[in-house]
Structures are given as C-alpha cells and as structure tokens.
Amino acid sequence: FSTTTRAVFTTQKLFENISAMHSVLVLTAAFGVTHAALTVPDWDFVPGDDAWTEHCVSAAAAEGKTQERWVSIATPTGSAPLKGWPVYLSLTTDFFPTKNGSAGSCGLPSETRKKFTAFASPQNALKSCYNASDDNSTTAVFDACSDALASTCSAATKRGIMACFSCAKPLVSSGTCEQKAAEVWCYEHGGHHNSGCGYDQEAGALWDQRMKQYFLNNGIAVVLVNPYVEDSWDAFEAAWSGYTLPDGSLEGGVDKPFLTSFVQAVRKGTYGPLDIDRTVVRGWSGGAQIVSWLFQVTQNTTSSFNGWKLKGGIMLSGGSYACYNDPQSNPESGPPLQPIGSCQGCTEGGPDHCAGDPLCSSCSPTVKPYCQQCCPRNYTEQYWAENPSAWGEHPPVLLAQTSTQDSHADLCAGKNYYETLQAHGVYSELVLVAKEDESCFCVGNPSNPAAKGSPFSARCEDPSWGQSCSDMGGKDCCISHTMYVICVCTNGPSMFVLMRTDSHRVRVSFWPCVVGAAVAVPAVEICCVASLRKWTVHGHLCGGSVHFRGFASMVEPAVNFVVNVTSM
After folding, report:
1. How many CA atoms lie less than 13 Å away from 375 in the CB half-sphere?
2. Chain centroid to CA 94: how far?
3. How confident is the model at residue 453, as a pLDDT?
4. Beta-strand (E) ranges in 492-547?
5. How far apart are CA 59 and CA 410, in angstroms?
6. Residues 502, 544: contact at Cβ < 8 Å?
7. Which of these, 152, 263, 441, 547, is most buried using a 10 Å CB contact count?
C-alpha cells in the first residue's frame, strides 16, 4: 500500500448539503481502495450469548498494585479467518456495565452512567429516553442510592445539575450513596427535565451502537475496553509512565501495563480468535488523543508492545495527543505540558470548555487560542516530526467532528490532524456533521438518507424538538452545551456578567455591553445577571455546540474504512 495510493481522499470540506456530503464520502477503486457492498444489519440485531463474551481483566498498576477492568467482546457469526477476526478496538470514555446490567465489581462503580449495555441494540440504547421496546437486551439496574436520590432530589433536578449535587450531599455524608454514584445520578437526571436521557444518549449513542451492528455483520470483531478512571486515558509520556503528585503519591501509569498485557493476551488467543495485528483503535473526545498516543508508542520498536502495529485509527471529536497542552496546567492533574508547533504562543489558561469566542479553537491562523483549546497544525505525533521520511508508515485514520461549534474540543482538532496527514500522503478521511443535521444528529435527521431506519428520527420534525434544552441536553434534545442568550444593555455602557454551568462547573464570563446593542453570547442557561445595571433578556435560542460520539452519516464510511484497512 504505497504512499501514492494512501492519498485517496478529497481535501477537507464543510458539507453544505446532503448530496455533496454523500459524494465526498465515496471512495473509488481508481484510487487503489475498493468498497465491497456492506451487509446492512437489522436494527434489532444483538449478538448471541455464544458471540458476546465478557471478561474481568487484571493487570499490574502503579506502585505494585493490581488493576481490573471490564472488557466486552463480540465476534461475527461463522468461522473465523485463519489468523482470527480483524478487530475494532474501542477505548471507551465511561464505563459499560456487564451484560445483565450490573456494576460494582471489576473496576466498575456501584452504578454506571450508561443506561445500556455494550452491545444493546440502538433502540435499547435510547430506551430510557423514549420508552422504546426491545426484549433482546437489558438496561442497567439501580440500587438503594438511586431510590433515595429519586425520592429526595427529583425536584432539585429540575433546577439543574448543581442543584442536584447540593441535594445529594446529605445522602453522601450519611453513607446512603457513594460520591461517584450520586454524581452519576445527577448527571443523568439534573437538567434533563425528567427526559430519562443520559449524556451518551444525547451525544449519539444510537449511532455508536448501530456501527457495532455493522461491524459484526461485516466480519469485524468488536472489543470494548473500559477505562481505569472514567473519561481518562494516559495519553502523554508522564502519564504513560506515571508521575508524582505534590503529596508524593503516584498518578497515571495504569494504561501502559494494562494495554501491553491485554494485547499480548489477545495475541495468545486468550479471548478467542482475534487477529490483534489487524486492529483499528477508536477513541472519542479525549479518547482520540490515546489513539494518537498509541500511534506514537507502537512505532517505537523497543516498546513493550513487541512490534505490534495498528492498522488504523478512528478519532471522534478530537485529534493529536499534543492538543490542549497548557503551561498553566494544575499539577494535581499532571505535570504542565508545553504547547507544540502552531500552538506555541497560545493564550495560557482559559476555560476547559468554551465556544463562541475566537480563542476557543485553532481554526484561525491569525488568532492565538486558549492553550486548553488548541490543537497544533502540521503535527500529529513526535515520531513523525523527528522522522519525516517515515510518513509512509503512519497508520490510516478516519476523523469525524462537528462543522460549526464544539464546546468540548478545538473545533479544528480533526481538521488539523487530517490536513497534516493529507499533506504527507497518508490514507485518511474527515467526516463532518452537516450543519443541517446538528440539531438532530443523535436521533437522525429524517431528510438525511443515512438516517433511514432510525426509530427516533421522526422526533426531529416535532415542533417541540430542541425547545427546552439545558446544560446536559434536555427533553427532546441532542447534547448541546451552548445556548445563545441575547441581552440588551439598557442603563449605560458597562460589562455584563454571564454565569453558565458547564458540566459540573460554574463559569463566569464578562462581556462588553454597548447601550441599545444586542449581543449574542454563549451560555448554557439563561442567566443574564444584573450587576449594578438593568438588563433585559431579549430572547434565546437552543442549539449550538455538538460534541458527538456518533451520527448517521459516519456509520457506513467508518465501517468501510475499517473493512478496507484491515484487509490491506
């Protein structure tokens, strides 16, 4: 597979309409890549018990301790190829419960944030949102803590996540709930207007589950590995090897021993007929950075992976492991990392999540973005920065991200990484959520042919869709971390204070105000606050940022990508 045939994709485009979107995603044999017709699975497909196995996997951890992680594996039906099934390895962001929905053992908290299991059908993945029926899989069970929270804090959830946290404190203090379980419950219920939806569901879990169905029906095994710490992977050198906190304790260093041990066990056949040498690894959000980091460390022939090389990667809503390096990083979250390449000279500090401010992304070469929102251009991993003659060895990559805003990532994280690969002739693809699909991406826009068959897409046409969103989504909403509040200053020029909740934090922003001028500002809840001045809330729109884990138009391109690269 030469570097000439690696450069098979068109240059990056913002897809302005459905027809343009679909034409840009089709690869042709003329470029050296063929597309076999994919088997389209039934929407209610769930792997049988003989094909769906689960394992409590132990490995070494920091300071001589042992770690355990829950791993879910599903294989296609039929006889495996001689060397085993090609592997789609998904490094998950938060914990999947066991097949029967239980938690509380093997590294799992007593209650998981996910309300569905690893290979639940798409219908079942959204069951708690829309009361869909599916007898083929189960949802996570809830314990006495959930009952107590539901009894005590249901009213507080209507006021948002922060109110739910405050309500839950006495239950945590009394020992009725673990802190983590209370947080999970509030994330799922706070600000959702009792819609029953969790973050995953409003971020596109429907399509993530649909993609797994496609893989299993097209000859690809699916392996899901839970993180050691939710929403955390060791994606830089100090974390990979472990680092010392100010209090003397060791942090990080858990993913290296686990992944190297797990890869070796897969190679030995411990978990069935899996061909670890034909693996595509997938990561979402911060998980995209561990994909990039694995490209870096597996390229090193002296690493403990013993020559394991990835066939490719899928990065969703993220990019290089060198993204978001900030000299002002809190030492409690790891040693400060210096910005690399085009991010050098970035604006230090800044919020963890933001949108609507030019400093919130690296998209403009004339703006120095916040360091915590910057992904470098013309850079993927250090190995290729130091060995430019080796670009022909870089694994193929499919990247996907939203088109207009992403309050949890640099909007150009995927674009920067993709354009770097393209400049060096590396086989790569970038798929963007079309602007017209953003408000309904989690259920599917019925006007998008790629969403055909979605049991929930008709909801997108309901007049109430998207009208009652909040920080973590809401009733009849896809995840939307940004609303727009239009405020008019009516009592002299000044600054107005905008308070917004972002995940579990409260952030305060100061915006200039001109008499009589309406200013659109990013906010999560309508919270124009009088600060010795008189303010008029002029209007609001729900929508804005999408930080997705799946959408309709990426399913078949991603499956084709994995089928192609694992057969090369």
Report:
1. 27
2. 10
3. 92
4. 494-502, 505-513, 518-523, 528-529, 535-542
5. 34
6. no
7. 441
